[in-house]
């Protein structure tokens, strides 16, 4: 049953005359008659009583008329909502991002973009890298700001974060200007859970340094790690924080290893067409990345 034919049926049910309904619809009478015949065949019952040269809805037809009107209204509503979502000026961007980007980069991006596109709406998701990749894969997110670069997705590098060793303020490493990760091999570590991208990077750095430090706690967010470091629970590999985001009770000692860094990037599923509002955000970010400090 085609939507057009369902709409034709509704018009015919209201006008109750094939010739007049065909004229109203802008189609030929034989076309409308054949459509009605197919519809009645699909339903398995006649939908009209033929009275002289007019049609009258019967009990079956009234049931179909009631449901057809609701169905057409729902389809129109869905079409309007889809068009609204895809409107580059008023649509919606579904953006996923790492917990660590919630403190400055994502809010700054949204603030700047909303100056240019104030009516675009956002559906935001904050989570771990593996959760973000899952949302990109299943279509729950249009774009993501994440690290490391996920396999099989489009990618645009945004900036590089240097990594450091966060230690308590009174720790023996706190006054160093730089440290090799191998020097911390016997220290208790606070880390993210195994599925997190930063944890995987930390484990790779430890393997390169030839150490296997004990992990005394697995956190879900970097600020939790930093707070526990400040409390003296252990040390942690974290991105060098922006001054206003640093934990007061921790010292941040840059790591000497050249590989002690993580690339933050914008990624999306290249197998799906980006909705126009999301494509607009990509273009905005690529053109204005130099403005983000």
What does this structure look like?
The chain is an alpha/beta fold and 293 residues long. The protein has nine helices and eleven strands. Strands 3, 4, 5, 6, 9, 10 and 11 form a seven-stranded mixed beta sheet that branches. Strand 7 (189-192), helix 7 (197-209) and strand 8 (215-219) form a beta-alpha-beta unit. The protein is elongated and about 100 Å long. The mean pLDDT is 91.
* Helical/strand content category: alpha/beta
Based on Cα principal axes, name the global outline.
Answer: elongated
Query: In whole angstroms, how far apart are the ends?
Result: 57 Å
| Strand percentage | 15-25%
Using DSSP, what is the number of strands?
11
Q: Could you describe the largest sheet, including whether it forms a barrel?
A: 7 strands, mixed
The percent range for helix content is: 40-55%
